[in-house]
Amino acid sequence: MSEIKYSWQEDTAFLDQKLLRYSQSNCYPFHMPGHKRAPLEFPNPYSIDITEIDGFDNLHYPQGILKDAQNRAAELYGAQETFYLINGSTAGILSAISAAVPRLGTILMSRNSHRSAYHAAFLRELETVYLLPAATKFGISGSVSPAHVAQALEDLPQISAVFITSPTYDGVVSDIRTIAEIVHAYNLPLIVDEAHGAHFSFSETFPESALDCGADLVIHSLHKTLPCLTQTALLHVNSDRIDKTALKRFLSIYQTSSPSYLLMASIEQCMRFLNEEGNTQMSEFTLKLNNFYQQAKSLKHLKVFDKSSCLAEECFDHDISKILISIGDSGISAKKLYQKLLHNYQLQMEMCSGHYVTALTSLMDSSDGFRRLLQALKEIDDSVSITQRTPKTEAPTIHGSKPNAKKRLLTSDVIYQNPKPQMPISLAIEQPSETLTLKASTGHISQEYIFLYPPGIPLLAPGEILTGKLLGIIEHCQRLGLSVEGLSDMDNQCIQVVKQ
Ligand SMILES: Cc1ncc(COP(=O)(O)O)c(C=O)c1O
Questions:
Q1: What count of other Cβ atoms lies within 10 Å of the Cβ of residue 298?
Q2: Which segments of the chain have a pLDDT < 50?
Q3: Whole-number pLDDT of residue 1
Q4: What would the pLDDT profile of 285-313 be if each residue is shown by its tens digit?
Q5: Which of 83, 410, 484, 485 has the lowest tally of Cβ within 10 angstroms?
Q6: Cβ atoms within 10 Å, residue 305
Q7: Rounded to an integer, what distance in angstroms lies between the CA atom of residue 164 and that of residue 491?
Q8: Nearest partner of 170 among 417, 484, 412, 459, judged by Cα
Q9: 113 touches ligand 1 (CB under 6 Å)
C-alpha cells in the first residue's frame, strides 16, 4: 500500500476513478471483501470474461467443468452437494427457504436474520415466527437458545423449517449441534446462514462449522472472509431432508441467467488456494489474531470483545476474526472512534454501531495492518486518559423511559424487539396503503422495513405495529449518526402503513 493519504472530499465524480484512487491510497481495509485487495494471481478480468460457449459448461445445467468445480468445493467442505452462488449468499438464502418451506407455510427464524430471509418470506407468502437471542453483557445479540427452538417447535406444529444465523454479523455462534438434534427430532430441516463463517472449516481456532454440526443447508459468503470476489458464495446441501429438485429450480429463478465466469473463476481459485494452503495460511492468521487480542488487553478504556467475559448460554462461541472494539469507559462515542480511526489513522472499519466498531479481518490481513490498528487504539486510549472522561450525551435515553432514568447504551437488547406480526409480510405489503409522518404512525401496521445498515437486521418489518418505544429507538439511532434505512422516504420523515 502506498503512502498516499486518501481524501474523502469529492475528488472525482466517476466511480471507477474514485475506486482506483482509494485502492492506491494508504487506507487499510478492515472491511469486506476478505481478499483485502491483496489479490491471488488472477488474470486480467477482460481476458476471461465469457458466456456459456463450447467447453465451458452452464451453471444452471452443469455437466462438465462447472459440475466438477462444484464437486471439488463439496469435497473441500465435506458437503453432500455444493452449488456455486454468483448472486451472493442472498441468492442461497432465498433458494434455501423457498425450497424448504411450502408457499403459505410457516418458518421459525432468528429475528437477527439478514433481510434476504425476510424477502424469502415475502416471496413465498410465509408466516414468520421469531427467535430473539438475548443480549450479552457486551451489548450485542447473543446465541439462539436451543431451549427456545424446542419450545417453539412444540407449541407450533405448523412450522416447516428452522433458519438460524450463525455466526452473526458480530461473529456470535449458536449451538448448532444441539439445535440440529432438536429440529431433526421433528423431522424438519435446519438451514444455517453461515455467510460470515466460510473460513471456519480451516482452523480449529474458529468455531465448528454448521456443516460438521448437522445442519441440512448451509450458506457461505466466500467474499466476506476469504480471498474471493464480491458476490461469490456457496450453498451446501448436507442431508436428504431437502428436495434438491426444488432447490435447483429456485436457484435458477433467483440467480442471473448470465453467471459471471470471472466470479466463478474466483471461486475455483479460492477453493484451490484453501485446499493447498488453507491450513498454513489460517495458522499464520490465527497467530496474528491471538497476538492482537493479547496486546489489546493493555487498553485501559476501550474494550475488545472476548467471549470469556460472557456466560456460555449468552454466547456459545465467537469467531475471533470479528474484532469488536467497544467504547468502554472512554467517554467517546462509537461514531467518534470510527471517525478517528478513519481520518486520523486511515483505517476503514467494517461497521460502527451504537457503542462499538467492528474490524473485519481475514487471512489476507497483513501483520502491518494489525500493527496499525493496535497502535491507533493505544493512542486513542491514551488520549482519552488525559482528557476528562465524562460520558457524552450520545449515550441514548430511550423514548418512553423516565427523564431521570439511568442513561443506557444503545445495546442490542434495546434496539431489537421481538414483535408479534399482525399479519404476514406479503399480506401487509399488498394491502391498500397510506403515508403518514413517522411521528403520526404510532399504532399503525407498517408496510415497510426499517433497519440499521450495516448490518441490515430489521428493527421493524412489514406487518408489525409501530410503537412509541420503537420510534424513540429510531430517533436515537439517527441522532447517533447511525444509518437508518429501509423507508421509501429516504429522509426518514414518512412511512407507508396499512390503510385503516
Ligand atoms: C448474516 C448475513 N447473511 C447473509 C448476507 C448476505 O450475503 P451476500 O452479501 O453474500 O448476499 C449478509 C450480508 O451482509 C449477512 O450479514
A1: 10
A2: 390-406
A3: 53
A4: 999 999 999 999 999 999 999 998 888 88
A5: 485
A6: 26
A7: 32
A8: 412
A9: no
Q: Which residues pair with 445 in a beta bridge?
A: 465
Spacing, Cα 221 to ligand 1 middle (Å): 7
Q: Hey, what amino acid is at 359? A: A
- The grid cell for 192 is 444455517
Closest ligand 1 atom to 32 CA: 14
- Mutation to probe ligand 1, out of 90, 97, 220 (largest number of atoms < 8 A from CB): 90
Domains and CATH numbers, the chain: 45-271 (3.40.640.10), 279-386 (3.90.1150.150), 412-498 (3.90.100.10)
What amino acid occupies position 189? P
**Measured in angstroms, how far is the CA atom of residue 220 from the centroid of ligand 1?**
9
Helices marked H in 241-260: 244-254
The pLDDT value given to residue 413 = 76
Ligand 1, atom 9: closest residue by C-alpha: 88
pLDDT value, residue 198: 98
Q: Whose CA is nearest to atom 2 of ligand 1?
A: 114
> Which secondary-structure segment (H or E) carries 237?
strand 233-237
Distance CA 84, CA 324 (A): 30
DSSP 360-372: E--TT--HHHHHH
Q: Residue 247 and residue 416: Cα distance in Å, rounded? A: 31
How high is the pLDDT of residue 350?
A: 97
Spacing, Cα 380 to ligand 1 middle (Å): 31
Which of 87, 196, 217, 351 gets mutated to test ligand 1 (max ligand atoms within 8 A of its CB)? 196
Q: Which atom of ligand 1 is nearest to the CA of 85?
A: 10
Q: Look at residue 420 in the predicted model and tell me its pLDDT.
A: 82
CB of 169 within 6 A of ligand 1: the answer is yes
pTM of the model as a whole: 0.94
**Is residue 225 within 8 Å of residue 206, measured between CB atoms?**
no
447 lines ligand 1 (CB under 6 A): no
Amino acid residing at 92:
G
Q: Tell me, what's the pLDDT at 387?
A: 65
Residue having the nearest C-alpha atom to atom 15 of ligand 1: 114
